[in-house]
Amino acid sequence: MNFLTLLFVTLSLLSAAGASQWRFDLKNTTSGIVALEAIVVSPTLILMFDRATNDTLQINNHSAWGALWNLESNAVTALNVLTNSFCASGALLSNGSMVSMGGDARGFAGNPAIQPGNQAIRIFEPCASPTGEGCTVFEDPENLHLARPRWYPSSIRIFDGSLMILGATPENSFEFFPPKDGGEVRPSPFLNRTVPANLFPRAFALPDGRVFIVANNQSIIYDIEAGTETPLPEIPNGVRVTNPMDGSAILLPLSPPNYTPEVLVCGGSATDPATPAANLSSQTPASSQCSRIMLTEEGIKRGWVVEHMIEERIMPEMIHLPNGQILIINGGRTGYAAVRYHRKLVGEGNADHPVLTPVLYTPGLPLGERFSNKGMPTSDIPRMYHSSVTLTPQGNVWVGGSNPSPNFTLPAPGVKFPSEVRIETLDPPYMFVERPTLGDLPPTIPFGAKVTVPITVPRALSSDVVQVSLMDLGFSTHAFHSGARLVFLNARMSANRTSLTFTMPPNSRVYPPGPATIFLTVNGITSVGVQTIVGSGAPPPIME
Ligand SMILES: *[C@@H]1O[C@H](CO)[C@@H](O)[C@H](O)[C@H]1NC(C)=O
Ligand SMILES: *[C@@H]1O[C@H](CO)[C@@H](O)[C@H](O)[C@H]1NC(C)=O
Ligand SMILES: *[C@@H]1O[C@H](CO)[C@@H](O)[C@H](O)[C@H]1NC(C)=O
Ligand SMILES: *[C@@H]1O[C@H](CO)[C@@H](O)[C@H](O)[C@H]1NC(C)=O
Ligand SMILES: *[C@@H]1O[C@H](CO)[C@@H](O)[C@H](O)[C@H]1NC(C)=O
Ligand SMILES: *[C@@H]1O[C@H](CO)[C@@H](O)[C@H](O)[C@H]1NC(C)=O
Ligand SMILES: *[C@@H]1O[C@H](CO)[C@@H](O)[C@H](O)[C@H]1NC(C)=O
Ligand SMILES: *[C@@H]1O[C@H](CO)[C@@H](O)[C@H](O)[C@H]1NC(C)=O
Ligand SMILES: *[C@@H]1O[C@H](CO)[C@@H](O)[C@H](O)[C@H]1NC(C)=O
Q1: Considering only CA atoms, which of 115, 104, 174 is closest in space to residue 339?
Q2: Residue 349 and residue 347: Cα distance in Å, rounded?
Q3: Whose Cα sits closest to atom 10 in ligand 8?
């Protein structure tokens, strides 16, 4: 055990002792649209997208498919979106603008306003209104669009602050926004050979600037500058982890001084994707396997190390908590992702046996001891296909969506998994006790900068050891959180516990330049997060 691991274990044990319980909190309003995609866009707002169907929330006399959720009032504001955002991706640029891209080419009979979304670029500029009033989505489909149509793509911010866009149907290629290579796409042999189970490829910007990608049961490291794909070992035991065999994947927290990257991939299915659809059933057990790899020369030689979740999960969500633990939540124990993909359905969905109790994964504990659902509450709302989850700036976990049907389906007798517009938060124990506070940060902070901010620390928190986490909260859809990242910062508090000094990551490869939320954790009790932009806040380069 190294020092950080030991520190982590100690802090986890301290936080477990005497803390109150985790709780689900059902909100007093609904999301109005199915939260199929969700991303935090300000201290108070979550931007949600659905497909353009028949959602109850209205705008301009038709159903909305984009909306803002206000974390303070639970109010929902419909957004006017032009193109179909069904199964799109999204990420934040270096200058703070949010970009949603790709989606469905189709319209919808009940919603004449809809335009094809498969080449769409939708820009949500930083919006200062805490309630979302006046915030808009900018689209100009004719003049601002992707090079190629992309449905089920992923997108991550890279070291120059632009976005790399990966896949998907029908495009086994990469492109960038703003464009590189004169707007040409880069064909990917890896994506080509992982068809048909490679939708929403799970990708992470590594701390050396290269990109790790896992799809189906294969993984590579892609070097953006050299344009090369280096194959890594396959996921063991035939387990597939991308749509329609959705497992989830996460880059474990990065810590100074070495920022050694490790990837954890959980759930999915061991079914061979070549199996005829008629032979697939919603009752086939999903995989409980998690596979973990350290992306160093030695780690790659060792390959994937296998461990198991408490339950099988198809479509699990995995998100970072500010203390470095990983929350695993949602999904089902049997079946597959997608809608009407095979014959033995539940309603029109491919999965069954919802998993209603979340699990914590503690990366620093020994193999075999890392999963626990002790003290975890159980929800009574299944969150199956088309749901989303995100950590909020307040430090709790926002949970929305689920709609394994082709249309908006109201609850009715015999409908096991209706279109779900109820929103819950999963509240960690620290939401119910006096918490440390972190003062406001400058709007932008350069790489390598040493920053001192005022803090308050409740007397009950006796430790002088702090954890300061720099987080991208990610864009959530299809059991993946595009762009999600946690980098621990070197930090110490003043002897009188009134100020905190921390050092930003050394360069734009450790944390791609752009928006971040910083949390302070003392004795396992986490502050409300404070937002800033890491780097200059300048727009990404245009390299046409
Ligand atoms: C919505 O419908 C109402 C009543 O038919 C009409 O008065 C109004 O102008 C319409 N609004 C829009 C934005 O189309
Ligand atoms: C719902 O709860 C929020 C937060 O407690 C409160 O601000 C809001 O007024 C409530 N809204 C309704 C419609 O009850
Ligand atoms: C949309 O929903 C309304 C009721 O909410 C229903 O009357 C209408 O038929 C639906 N349209 C479609 C195309 O499903
Ligand atoms: C993609 O894979 C198919 C076989 O599945 C092969 O015929 C084709 O040449 C490949 N294309 C590229 C661009 O690698
Ligand atoms: C990965 O998938 C391929 C194609 O289905 C299969 O041949 C191979 O055995 C799998 N690899 C492992 C390690 O299970
Ligand atoms: C599919 O099911 C049929 C009939 O149940 C069976 O004969 C066949 O072997 C199955 N194929 C696969 C690939 O599982
Ligand atoms: C669902 O929507 C499609 C159009 O996208 C329509 O053709 C179909 O009839 C709808 N099904 C139901 C059950 O409303
Ligand atoms: C706390 O200590 C810092 C120096 O570390 C000092 O600048 C500050 O004035 C002290 N604050 C209080 C309230 O004593
Ligand atoms: C950020 O950069 C993008 C891409 O160049 C641009 O579309 C957007 O308007 C910029 N946002 C701000 C706030 O300047």
Answers
A1: 104
A2: 6
A3: 496
